Amino acid sequence: MPEIIADKTIFSLAEVARSIQKTIADRYKSLYWIKAEMNKLNHYSHSGHCYPELLEKLEGKVIAEIRATLWKSDYERINQRFVEIIKEPLKNGINILLQASISYDPVHGLSLHIVDIDPSYSLGELEREKQASIALLKEEGLFEANKLLPFPLLPKRIAIVSVETSKGLADFLKIIDHNSFGYRFEYELFPALLQGEKSVISIIDQLAKIRLQLQRFDVVAIIRGGGGEVGLSSYNNVLLAKAIATFPIPVITGIGHATNETVSELVAYKNAITPSALADYLLQHFHNFARPVTYAEQVLRLKTQQLFDNQQQLLNNNIRYFRMASLNMLHENKHQLANLRNRTLQQSKYQLAQEKGSFQRLKSQLSTQSKRTLMEEKQAITFLGQRLKRENLHLSKRSRQVIRQIRDQLIRQSHQIAKKHHAALTTLHKNLAPGTKRLLVEATKSLDNQERHLSILDPQHVLKRGYSIMLFQGKAVTDAQVLKVGDKVKTILAFGETDSQVTFVNEIKK
């Protein structure tokens, strides 16, 4: 009861509080549906109760705030419905439509006792926020930014944003590491929280780290998986979506759900339903590159073998032709050399016979002349002796000695003349024989030199020194002017032959 003091009615605080409590209890007897933002859930795990902080904002300013209570049994029931319908648990920062009673406690003050929360309303609010994020990104021209980036021909180096313990990450790595085609990927894990209130900041931070070392990676893969449909609202966050949309290299996602795509997935270059599907997407890029390369390799190998076979056949034909031509040339030169040898021998024999005849004639002449000279001298001496006898000259012993000396001198002179002629004939014979022999040796050396030159000119030896023969329409090509782009030519090597097609002609001015 109030007190009256100095004409003043005074109430105690408890009386005022109980009056307010009674007034509110009389006025707010029903349950009311109230929409508000759950600023903080304040769930206490040891008791299971929640003490949410409810707000209402206008243009970013708080215009109302009330505490609430949510007992354990109601929380578990409501939270289960949220997971089933929204695919998200109750959490901070979402707009809710709650059913609550209004009460006032003299000690704890005014509060709302929550008995139910409509998840459909929160789902609509989340979708509204999602559409607002999409509209903002499109307005700023960022929605298609990442999709317009050029995708690498072979996405070999991957920066992975995920959790080490994620089942989706394990599935992803199993496929790319153990693919049956032998493709090899390089990747590095950047650990991040992938669901919950802190997931947005965690993923953005890891993207910032990757941005500092872009030259090391071809793509970024955000892999969640293994968590079902729960905890996806963070991927609708406009800040995370902007970080992905503006990333300088392609971002691909494997979030692991089958419902409507999140904003982050929509702005990514490629999003797959599961991490396994994302791994298959990367393998498909390797397939797309490998198939034409493999086919080209097979065609190139076949065409090359055909070229080698054709060139080998042509080279064998040319070798046979050059061998036959060389043999014919050698045979002809041997025949000419044999004829030259025979003519040389015949000429030598004829000249020897001529010299021998001359020698014999000269010998006969010298012998005849010597005998004639001796006879003349002898006759002269005899005539002189007879004359002396006729003249009855009595020669002295000294005179007879002089006559004998003269006769002996004449005989010696005749012998000396004969020796000189004999020596001249001998010298002539000696000089003639070496000259003929030298002529034969020089002719033989000439023949050997011709044989060596013919052997060196054998085309097989020329080809072995690194040269080749180019044929166009069966004729050897020595001038580029006879060729034009598109002509087919054949090249003969020391071992094998090739067919080619002219793609460029560089004419040299003469």
Automatic annotation (TrEMBL):
Coiled coil: none
Protein name in the entry: Exodeoxyribonuclease 7 large subunit
Domain Exonuclease VII large subunit C-terminal stretches: 142-500
Keyword entries, A-Z: Cytoplasm, Exonuclease, Hydrolase, Nuclease
Record-linked Pfam families: Exonuc_VII_L (PF02601), tRNA_anti_2 (PF13742)
Catalytic activity entry: Exonucleolytic cleavage in either 5'- to 3'- or 3'- to 5'-direction to yield nucleoside 5'-phosphates
Keyword Zinc-finger applies: no
Predominant cellular place of this UniProt entry's protein: cytoplasm
EC id: 3.1.11.6
Annotated localization: Cytoplasm
Gene, per the UniProt record: xseA
Gene Ontology molecular function: exodeoxyribonuclease VII activity
Origin species: Olivibacter oleidegradans
Domain (OB-fold nucleic acid binding): residue spans on this chain: 11-117
Family (UniProt): Belongs to the XseA family.
